[in-house]
Amino acid sequence: MSINELLKQQNMSKYRLAKESTVPYTTVNELCSGKLNIGKCAAATVYKLSKVLGISIDDLIADEMKHDKDWRCKRMTSNDFLTNRAWHRAVISGEDVILRHTSALEHLELFLGYMNEKTIDVYAKRPGRYENINYHIVDSFNDIDTVRFGDVVCTSANQTFNDMLSGFDNIDEQALVEGLAGYYYSNGESFNGLSIKPENMERFNFVKDWAVEYYNGG
Length: 218
What we know:
Strand content: 5-15%
Order of helices and strands: HHHHHHHEHEEEEHHH
Number of helices: 11
Helix content: 40-55%
Number of strands: 5
Mean pLDDT: 89
Oligomer: single chain
Low-confidence stretches: none
Radius of gyration: 20 Å
Largest sheet: 3 strands, mixed
């Protein structure tokens, strides 16, 4: 829901929101009127508003951006949001797609991403019309292992790493190495739990050494 909808639902005025959050009334008013893009607000401002409204930061940002799909897809970059998850949600919410490769690693929070990213990588069953979404067409999603985060679906860690290892010559090596390092860290300095396909194992064995070296600051 938008800030206006949340205020109405909670029977709260803009003045009360400003007072309880300590966010200036002019800022609250401009957000409610559409003059100010919440993606441009300071992190502290968004945090204060989300706390009073009882909604997560990611949800607040994404819900405020749900209007004007064409504008979102063509002009928004990762810099317009506090997190990559919020950026993904704002752009692909409602689309029949699955985040893949680097975008999946970002949503899984295994890779921090880059500054000012403009393109989101997805699996789709048909070509899309948004130029900032890279559509990789598949016949079906049935054989793709996924994880759902609210209204966003992305490939699982196993699926993502296997996909990237399979297409190693045409993928973002830095994202893969940092993603594996992120998995290594979150899994107690171990790759146990990953199910790497036999045809990808040789490549995984030397890439994981890069990942461990990266994790150790090498």
